[in-house]
Fold this sequence. Notes:
alpha/beta, TIM Barrel, 11 helices, 42% helix
Amino acid sequence: MTSFSEKLKSAIQRTGGCLCVGLDVDLAKLPAGLSRDSQGALTFCQAVIEATKDITAAYKPNLAFFESLGAEGFRILEKIRASIPDNAIVIMDAKRGDIGNTSQAYAKAFYENLKSDSVTLSPYMGKDSVEPFLDYPGTCSFVLCLTSNPSSSDFQLQTLQNGQKLYEWVAQTAIGWEKGKNGEVGLVVGATQTQYLKDLRKLAPDTVFLVPGVGTQGGDLPGVLKEGRAGNGYGILVNVSRQVLYASSGSDYALASRREAQKLVDEMKPYFRGVS
């Protein structure tokens, strides 16, 4: 079976960029003309996917927004998943993390039922909370490592007795969980933490990074691409949500989403041109 890293490389080569469109569906922000309910959310997501599918390497549904819709939310999530083409990567942004048997159930939900390629996880409970996800070949479990939210420094930037920052220990430890497993471990690294990205890439030269925080959150895209690509020139997905999703509040929302996505991909292309 093709590894996740190879799937990602193919997706970047196909689109010219490493754009991941985050599907953070806020009903209050749906464009005019769409019902502000689960059906409106479904129509909105499917239109954005259709408009951007040839230039987008990955899509990342944020489960919180679908779970907030109750049973209907899961129904439309399945339909949205079915709308994403097979040559694009699907990341379920769930941030799960629990004891082994619960994680086994989560892994089955995301990798068997929803047929996703990857999922975001919290590493706080340790190895046995992540291992069940690594039993699935061709997948990548993205562990929260260095996030872009203002309070990330409460824990992640704290210095341990050995002199490492906590995020460095998380990265080093989580990568070790991959050994002998079928799936890969990736790291979530916020785009607003560019000053640490270079050091983290040295620590994890071949690990796939999922980088949120570009766009509305103010992350530096050129800096991220310069410092964040893996040793093979790939190994990175840059997630953008609001800038692409809510580019227009009118009936042209799908075309506006494509325009924003295209701008981002055009900015990414020079960093992957000529990489074999």
